[in-house]
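Bit of a strange request maybe. I'm writing a small parser for structure token strings and I need a real example to test against, not something I typed by hand. Could someone generate the tokens for this chain?
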Amino acid sequence: MKNRSKRYEKASALVQAGKSYGLEEAVGTVKKFPAPKFDPTVTVSFHLGVDPRKSDQMVRGSVALPHGTGKNVRVAVFAAGAAAEAAEAAGAEFVGFEDLIKRVQGGFTDFDVAIATPDAMTEVRKIARVLGPRGLMPNPKTGTVTDDTAKAVKEVKAGRIDYKLDKNGNVSGAVGKASFSEEALLENARAFIDSVVRAKPASAKGNYVRSVTVAASMCPGIPLESGVYTKA
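Reply from user aminoacidic:
Good idea to test on real output. This should exercise your parser:
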């Protein structure tokens, strides 16, 4: 097993083994971790009691974080005409239709979010094998299939994040950077936790949320008390 760095060991010493933390204490602990040479991303991760193999137990959604993610989000928009012009004006980095689809078919995926107009989706579905595995496929449920491309681009760049259940029953989302104030991280984390809790499928039985962890990049995770998410 690879030895942990001294910085990781110092961070681990701040997390009490076997203890579950309140959200405020967890965020406060993250802020105390030794700082690396970069600004770590703070992530909230859920382990859910649903069956990822059943379509009626899929958990996915989007949430606008009050203080954004701290990340420069690169947006690709599949659209033509006025919708394409609106997307460009709103700040989308890559805008096009058939030409952009050809670029993606050639291996181009240098963007973080893909948005498409409904009438473009017939062609965009042809590159689902490229976009899908990377979590980039536009979807009406997350607001990334829309005629109002300008609004969608602005929301994504302002800090809206999309989340989706993975094959192991986990959902995670970046809720900011370690450099954010404690208040900003708390408000972002609460918004994300509340959204995932509200996304519980009607068919899900038993214990929906099994555990929630807060972590910063290359640092130990901090388990949260159940009250944090049962009261969300």
